[in-house]
Amino acid sequence: MTNYYQREQFEQLVLPHMDAAYNLARWLVRNPQDAEDLAQEAMTRAIKFFSGFRGGDPRAWLLTIVRNSCFTWLGRNRAKDLAEFDEETHSPGILSHGNQSSIQAPADPEKMAVAQAESARVRRALEELPVIFREAVVMRELEGMSYKEIADVTGVSIGTVMSRLARGRDRLRAILIESIRMSPARQEEPIP
After folding, report:
1. Which of 27, 88, 158, 183 is most solvent-facing, going by the fewest CB within 10 Å?
2. Nearest to 130 by CA among 80, 187, 95
3. HEC sequence for the chain
4. Predicted local distance difference test score (pLDDT) of residue 119
5. Taking the CB of residue 124, how many other CB atoms lie within 10 A of it?
6. Mean pLDDT along residues 168-184
7. What is the pTM of this model?
């Protein structure tokens, strides 16, 4: 960064999105230490190239850098995660879409334990998604990004974003249903 004004602008526009940068990196590479390194690398690149930022959404701009850093890293270290996916394998039958806007934290310890177990089940299921679906779901559901913002970050059309989200949600739902079906507690119950 060459001048005081640019540094001030960077601090005001980009630094508030450091948590989002780490969060996206964490979900893409599925390792907290690698995610920290990649978020730091992305932040370094953002500082270096901030003079090329031409306005717009600074979060989307930073997350584009994070995404590119993660995909480069995945290509070098875990190319199988980026392998082409089979449409039939990764797109199970369409399931109905439920829409729950918020989850209330339970007050009693038993409900808290159940909520934590469910949260862990969702995290595990999300980690099983192919990376292109996982990134779309993370950006939309966890980061609250609009379809347009996701399209800008990923460099694909809004229609492709919508398709990836639908398929990612369907696949996530299928994984969750299977994990519930296969849970030890369910296996002990008699099947009607």
Report:
1. 88
2. 80
3. CCCHHHHHHHHHHCHHHHHHHHHHHHHHHCCHHHHHHHHHHHHHHHHHCHHHCCCCCHHHHHHHHHHHHHHHHHHHHCHHHHCCCCHHHHCCCCCCCCCCCCCCCCCCHHHHHHHHHHHHHHHHHHHHCCHHHHHHHHHHHHCCCCHHHHHHHHCCCHHHHHHHHHHHHHHHHHHHHHHHHHCHHHHHCCCC
4. 75
5. 12
6. 86
7. 0.66
Fold of domain 4-82: Rna Polymerase Sigma Factor; Chain: A (1.10.1740)
Biggest CA-to-CA distance, the chain: 71
Confidence of residue 105 (pLDDT cuts 50, 70, 90): very low
pLDDT exceeds cutoff 70 at 50 = yes
d(CA 180, CA 186): 7
Note the pLDDT of residue 79.
76
Residue 35 in tokens: 């995610």
Q: Are 59 and 73 in contact (CB under 8 A)?
A: no
As given in the structure block, the two tokens for residue 118 are: 């469910």
CATH number belonging to domain 103-188: 1.10.10.10
Every domain of the chain and the residues it spans: 4-82, 103-188
